[in-house]
Write a structure and sequence with these properties.
Elements: H1 13-30, E1 39-40, E2 45-46, E3 49-55, H2 65-77, E4 83-87, H3 89-95, H4 100-111, E5 127-132, E6 135-138, E7 155-164, E8 173-181, H5 185-201, H6 203-209, E9 213-214, E10 225-226, H7 228-247, E11 251-252, E12 258-260, H8 261-267, H9 269-273, E13 281-283, E14 286-290, H10 295-304, E15 315-324, E16 340-350, H11 355-372, E17 378-384, H12 395-411, E18 416-420, E19 429-435, E20 441-450, H13 453-456, E21 461-462, E22 468-469, E23 472-481, H14 482-492, E24 506-510, H15 516-528, E25 533-535, H16 542-551, E26 556-560, H17 562-567, E27 569-574, E28 583-584, H18 585-598
Helix pairs in contact: 1-2, 6-14, 11-12
The protein binds one RNA strand of 76 nucleotides through strand 2, helix 4, strand 7, strand 8 and helix 6.
RNA sequence: GCCGACGUAGCUCAGCCGGCAGAGCAACCGCCUUGUAAGCGGUAGGUCAUGGGUUCGAUUCCCAUCGUCGGCUCCA
């Protein structure tokens, strides 16, 4: 939760290098085709490099990369100056007469009015060209002085992708080439190494290697099948959150998988979420939906439980129910984007006066859980409503909710940044965005204030004044969804889960067949101590058994041979490769207990 | 959904311009009885995603479908 005071990216040399490299690439690409065949769009620097969008006469393949890169290096070597020229809109249109996308941009600049988000610009922007060699681009800069300042050994074209003009699927689809550039080959290498490392940690690959989950054509996309080991992980994760929630005073409810469609019409979800719900199941005259969220169900339960007094509040309903969301076919991906997802969802019904205290409670819980999963670096985003129609139109309640959330954040001394347009349709949110070991950001936990749904669904409590009031609902998720969170922690831990979470904690490795019985006795004793143990009594050699257990990232391997059997000991080997030497079972148990306790 | 790439044994992959499908690992069966990351030998395993088409002949070429992967407002 630190705020970083850094030089803005746009002012860095790296930004100028990448921006210039994008121009050089555009020139190199255009030269691969006949004059006038290539329509150029935009080519900005991005977080790890740059891209340029083109409309091309034929699709590109990675085989085109070496040719383009080679030409880029030639252009770089010639040390062409980047020259800026401020021009009139007329001049600009003349220069880009055959370039529809550029003309579109120029018209936008001419109108002067709006930037990319539709926000009006304070002053009319000047229109400028940057020219190097024979390539001129409509561009606001900045650039390096000449192409020679791009290190030819530190550039690389990365991938090709489709992208829509201005990101709108109604517009023509362009070919986007991603590239990257660094100051030195060493930095490029490091970047490529990070990408490699991320690939090795990819939860889809590790999920298969560790035998945790599978997807099947016969089941359908977005519905993971969990093996016994994978289910053990899910179970441990949910068990932990459930235990923590109970400790913090939350209660658990169960509300099933099917809901009458009408409920979502009342709650407002139908209008906002119809496209993420699976199509209705119709029985006689009634339409049912697979439940895509719990809130209307929990609110209905609240109502059914009878009249509530303010004395009963807060009521905290948590549920681990699998929800079904119709993610678009191109958007399902591993465990991070699934169609069957299990939320660790909670709805707290409280009075307006209790918001702050309830927010603090959620915050404490979230902090504990993130720490348990060793996410120490996270920040909080205050997600507010933005332009556009998805937000329920009730400015007074929005202001109330926003003020309540800000007050709660401030009271808890939480630093946060704001993001317009990220709110839920019914209210603002505080989202927790954690960084994993590779520095990637994941939105995990969330706390949301809802003044709207409870009123829509007619919830009430009787206040001290003996009048009916509408309760406030706090929506809150800690790990978000079990599936996605599992995907994230697989990558975060590279599959080497902390002992408390490891689906297999111990593998007992008998050296020869004659040690199998002793190994089984050891296993039985450890199981009695609630450890998850497997005996590897295969006919493999000890070395092969160790290798297998290492690859499965099992925290402890207990080697047992003649010496151990004789002395009634075990010889632990840790997955780090450490070898503490033979010890009694009790001593080993003490180590394991300590690791579990400390979250190692 | 859209664009592109890909889909060969459980896994990782080979199979050049069309001519009866291959390796390693895993599995199974033996032998070895083993001291901290792969002991040795053997056996079995594929309607080459699915469905059409072209051809004397298709894993290979073409089309469609399904699935997977990379992208799809980090903004001249």
């Amino acid at each position: 939760m630190s705020d970083h005071k850094e030089i803005p990216y746009i002012e860095t040399e790296l930004y100028r290098i990448r921006h210039s490299a994008a121009h050089v690439m555009a020139q190199a690409v255009m030269e691969q085709f006949e004059p006038g065949e290539v329509k150029i769009a935009i080519g900005p620097p991005i977080e790890d490099g740059f891209y340029y969008d083109f409309q091309l006469p034929r699709p590109l393949t990675p085989e085109d990369f070496p040719v383009i890169e080679k030409r880029m290096r030639q252009i770089i070597a010639a040390k062409h100056k980047f020259e800026k020229r401020v021009v009139s809109a007329e001049e600009a249109k003349k220069e880009f007469a055959g370039q529809p996308f550029k003309l579109d941009l120029i018209r936008g600049l001419e109108a002067g009015g709006v930037d990319e988000n539709g926000e009006p610009l304070k002053e009319k922007p000047e229109i400028s060209f940057y020219t190097h060699d024979v390539f001129t681009d409509l561009c606001r800069g900045p650039h390096v002085e000449n192409t020679g300042q791009i290190n030819p050994s530190a550039i690389k074209l990365m991938s090709i992708a489709g992208a829509y003009w201005r990101g709108d699927e109604k517009n023509p689809q362009l070919t986007r080439i991603y590239g990257t550039a660094f100051k030195s080959p060493k930095e490029l290498e490091e970047h490529l190494w990070r990408l490699e490392e991320a690939k090795k940690r990819d939860h889809r690959k590790l999920g298969k290697d560790l035998g945790l989950f599978y997807f099947s054509d016969d089941i359908g996309p977005g519905v993971p099948l969990f093996t016994p080991k994978g289910e053990m992980l899910r179970h441990l994760m949910e068990d932990y959150v459930r235990e923590a929630q109970t400790r913090y005073g939350y209660e658990h409810v169960w509300t099933g998988h099917l809901v009458k469609e009408d409920l979502y019409k009342k709650s407002g979800h139908y209008d906002n979420y119809a496209d993420v719900m699976f199509p209705p199941m119709v029985d006689e005259n009634v339409s049912f939906r697979l439940k895509p969220m719990n809130c209307p169900s929990h609110m209905t339960l609240y109502k059914e439980m009878g009249r509530h007094s303010y004395r009963e509040l807060p009521l905290r309903f948590s549920e681990f129910c699998t929800l079904y969301r119709y993610e678009k076919s191109g958007e399902v991906s591993g465990l991070t984007r699934v169609r069957a997802l299990t939320q660790d969802d909670c709805h707290t019904f409280c009075t307006p006066d209790q918001i702050q205290q309830e927010f603090s409670l959620s915050l404490q819980l979230i902090r504990e859980v993130l720490e348990r999963y060793r996410f120490s670096d996270y920040k909080v985003r205050l997600s507010l409503r933005g332009e556009g129609g998805k937000y329920v139109d009730d400015p007074e309640k929005w202001d109330l909710a926003e003020a309540a959330l800000r007050a709660a954040l401030d009271a808890n001394k939480v630093e946060y940044f704001e993001a317009a347009g990220e709110a839920a349709f019914y209210g603002p949110k505080a989202d927790f965005i954690a960084r994993d070991v590779l520095g990637r950001e994941w939105q995990l936990s969330t706390i949301q204030v809802d003044f709207i749904q409870p009123a829509r669904l007619g919830l009430a409590y009787i206040g001290e004044d003996n009048q009916e009031h509408t309760p406030v609902v706090l929506h809150r998720a800690v790990t978000g969804t079990t599936e996605r969170f599992l995907g994230v922690i697989i990558e975060h831990f590279a599959g080497a889960f902390p002992v408390w979470l490891a689906p297999e904690q111990v593998v007992v490795i008998p050296i020869a067949d004659r040690h199998n019985d002793y190994a089984r006795q050891v296993a039985a004793q450890l199981r009695a101590e609630r450890l998850r143990v497997r005996v590897d009594d295969s006919s493999d050699r000890m070395n092969a058994k160790i290798r297998d257990a290492q690859k499965q990232k099992v925290p402890y391997m207990l080697v047992v041979g003649d010496a151990e059997m004789e002395a009634n000991q075990v010889a632990p080997r840790l997955r780090s490769g450490e070898n503490p030497g033979a010890m009694s079972l009790a001593d080993f148990l003490a180590i394991a207990r300590k690791d579990i306790e400390e979250g190692n």
